[in-house]
UniProtKB/TrEMBL annotation:
Domain Beta-ketoacyl-[acyl-carrier-protein] synthase III C-terminal positions: 256-344
Pfam families: ACP_syn_III, ACP_syn_III_C
GO biological process: fatty acid biosynthetic process; secondary metabolite biosynthetic process
Domain remark in the UniProt entry: The last Arg residue of the ACP-binding site is essential for the weak association between ACP/AcpP and FabH.
InterPro entries linked: ACP_syn_III_C, ACP_syn_III_N, FabH, Thiolase-like
Protein name: Beta-ketoacyl-[acyl-carrier-protein] synthase III
Residue span of region ACP-binding: 272-276
Organism: Streptomyces monashensis
């Protein structure tokens, strides 16, 4: 265990302070072993590799094996985040997911138990593809208020379990995976501190992204669900426009709240929804697309896992370096959107291990 991390399992927290902040201390990732290539999908759908790449920028994605669930991926990613920080535990678990192991109870308490954290606070956050940013805000709040000294924030989804096997529009886009960040108590002046948040929603557009069956509204009718309502659906063109607009606005807002000009931001790590969306946002912000970190080609849209997976990948490839100004932005069903900002941490053991020898902390997608 590294010096200064011995108390990471505490749940009694520390004193409240306006300077107390949540600081990124560890990163972890996990993806299922099963690889689904564009050619695999072309054998069962009316599509081909060229069409999928042109429309989405995706080459392959991962899918859970029979019997494998979101919680399994979350546990692996969380353990890797703890290992990357050399930490013996965490004071709380916040799990962002839209595919919990079951509707009730939440998945986070079981994840905390399987990791061996004991009776720590643990709960789920459901904000679809913005879930990880909302979960970061929740974890940062627990730390800033002195409730706990550390939080495991996990984004995990097994979205392949919600897709209509005959729906080309959704099957080519989504993949399964999990990413985790260990937050520790620290100061706002430290590198790695989450400096502020910009969050929003628009429930009037909830029909653009979602799954109608399974909730209390459908069940209360007493009627069987329509087959099409048991699968995830998305109105692609409308979602594209909303995603570009909302993520652009959110990135600008968090930069302003942090006191940065958008042009000063070195790296943007956005929800990996679609390569064309990232390009459109970059154009609206007037910035080179090279500043936008992406791994969508290898894992697809992994919903709440997409931002932490992209963080791990970009760190391991040396695209995120100590001292960079970084903005994280998500957009998802609800509609929901949100951003946070930080100065990338290091130099420290976390960065040196991930950037030189990623080991088990990285998904094996190469």
């Amino acid at each position: 265990m590294r010096p200064g991390l011995e108390g990471y399992g505490r749940t009694d927290g520390g004193p409240r302070s306006p300077e107390r902040a949540a600081v990124v201390a560890g990163l972890g990732a996990a993806v299922p072993e099963t690889v689904v290539t564009n050619d695999d999908l072309a054998r069962v759908l009316d599509t081909d590799d060229a069409w999928i790449r042109r429309r989405t920028g995706i080459r392959r994605r991962r899918a859970v094996a029979p019997g494998q669930a979101t919680g399994d991926l979350a546990v692996e990613a969380a353990r890797n985040a703890l290992a990357s920080a050399g930490a013996g535990g965490a004071g709380a678990v916040v799990l962002a997911t839209s595919t919990p192991d079951q509707l009730c109870p939440a998945t986070a308490p079981n994840v905390a138990s399987r990791i061996g954290l004991g009776p720590v606070p643990a709960f789920d956050v459901q904000a679809v593809c913005t879930g990880f940013v909302y979960a970061l805000a929740s974890g940062a709040g627990l730390i800033s208020l002195g409730v706990v000294d550390s939080v495991l924030v996990i984004g995990a989804d097994a979205f392949s379990t919600l897709l209509d096997p005959e729906d080309r529009a959704t099957r080519v886009v989504f993949g399964d995976g999990a990413g985790a960040v260990l937050l520790r108590a620290g100061s706002r002046t430290e590198r790695g501190a989450l400096l502020d948040f910009s969050l929003g929603s628009d429930g009037s557009a909830e029909d653009l992204i979602g799954m109608r069956a399974g909730g209390s509204r459908q069940r209360s009718t007493g009627l069987p669900a329509k087959v099409e309502d048991t699968y995830f659906s998305m109105q692609g063109q409308a979602v594209f426009k909303q995603a570009v607009s909302r993520m652009t606005e959110s990135a600008r807002d968090i930069a302003a709240r942090t006191g940065w000009a958008v042009e000063e931001v070195d790296s943007f790590v956005f929800h990996q929804a679609n390569a064309r969306i990232l390009t459109a946002v970059a154009r609206r912000l007037g910035l080179p697309v090279e500043r936008f970190r992406t791994n969508i080609a290898e894992v697809g849209n992994t919903v709440s896992a997409s931002i932490p997976l992209a963080l791990v990948d970009a760190t391991a490839r040396g695209e995120l370096t100590p001292g960079q100004k970084v903005v994280l932005t998500g957009f998802g069903g609800g509609l929901t959107w949100g951003s946070t900002a930080l100065v990338w941490p290091g130099p420290d053991p976390l960065l040196s291990e991930l950037s030189t020898d990623a080991g088990d902390f990285l998904p094996k997608y190469r």
